[in-house]
């Protein structure tokens, strides 16, 4: 037989060349007609590595038999194997023109169109093909193909047609679950997924879908059981391992999750999601160097994935390579997939370099790209407010976009005034623009803060208590109540109001537990405060929030073991918590505490005698730079004589600004008055 490229192959040679490629041989043997032998010869060339020769033969063969549907399908299949997707599409277009009702023709033609990015042509093909000329099973297959190419609305349309003809159609039911998930109806999606898993107990995809949604619903045990069953049925699928790791992480079984991810990345080294998941877990466990290694492996597989770029920058920050992180993120600004998080992180890094103007500029650039983004706007407002600068109308127009509600402008203006301690003006602005009874939790919080700033503590407490009864499920209101009551020396009342409050959102509940821990510290219930913190500790470790009040209380009490535990939590590299304590009194307290216990063989300094305040104050005056001694003395005094928190009186008494957070009464004992007076002569003490 003479080939197009001039190579002559005999039937026995064709047979020997096609050995080892059973899929091609099977397709060729299924073919029949005058073109079948030439197809086998072309496939033999393809197996032998003569790709160009084979492709030339295949395209010539398809052109010679344009109306032979079987020929076009088989040639298209071979061309796809050779990477010639455009030529394959040309064949399938001929096949579809000759036989539009063919199930395989429709399926393969749709795949080729979508793979080459011809979404409009794909939708037109679906519209042009009459439903009555389409087999029932094809609708579900179409839906699955469209869903894989992120054409979710079109997929749901096809799935509905499939379910109308066959309610048990598996691909269509999977698409229905995806649709419910995207609509936010996770509970209904999970119910249908569990039913699907029961009806198809030996189908990995049904089990995987149910396991993933079990994770979403917080049912980690169910997720683990379903994922393990799916893994047993489909050991070559990485999804069950990923779902198992996610479930273990949700249950805070971190070491087990790490072992699963080590196994997963070993078995599926080309799966970037697994490397990224392992990197995030290593960050959480404090193994930052390994996290960076794993992140780079994930990025090597998907170099354009923007979230992986942010993850790499986070690793660099955790390794204290701030300059490298900033340079890396600045190169990412032009990325079309960049999110607002990029600008927030660049601003934070500029702050670490003490470059406040550049930090604000990054936020402005972010707001120009993402107008009205609340996170970026809040950061910018805070930075400008701390500098005593307000946003002018032009700035507001830039950062908020062309349209902004009047109420948002009012809240923004009031927030700026509060940051600048202009409490009277803030209250006036709010009262002029909102009804007296209030109608928005954000406005209510600002009013309460303004009243507290004016030292109208009783009124602030009454107001925030009423707001709490109006919005009992609002955690921000509960947090403001905790703060105002605590600062008004009414922590016991706050505990009575908030102790039994709970929130369905785990993150909100964790922050509420943290606030309750602070309250218990302020009423001297250190053991209860520690227990409340430990109950939510695992969740807090995933955030930037820590119990600073509890650290101070434990330091004051000389509790070395628990203090070291909380200091370790503060320094966990998975969060940016340390940026809230660096260069502050608390950071210096921790440093002094660690020096003290090292010098004393692991023991803290002796506790203050019960009736020895003035004597101890005299000792503190001998080393006025010792924040630790000062804090211990004031903490002791607070427990002995709780009174009214008065920020302005504290400032007027000459207390350094970072000591004010420990101030609790204007009735100062003689020894403490002398200690305060001594600070005025200490160079550099004022922060």
TrEMBL record:
UniProt keyword annotations, A-Z: Repeat, TPR repeat
Protein name: Uncharacterized protein
Gene3D superfamilies, alphabetized: Tetratricopeptide repeat domain (1.25.40.10)
Statement: the UniProt record of this protein carries the keyword Repeat: yes
Keyword Signal: no
Organism (species): Roseovarius lutimaris
Superkingdom classification of source: Bacteria
Alphabetized InterPro entries for the sequence: CellSynth/LPSAsmb/PSIAsmb (IPR051012), TPR-like_helical_dom_sf (IPR011990), TPR_rpt (IPR019734)
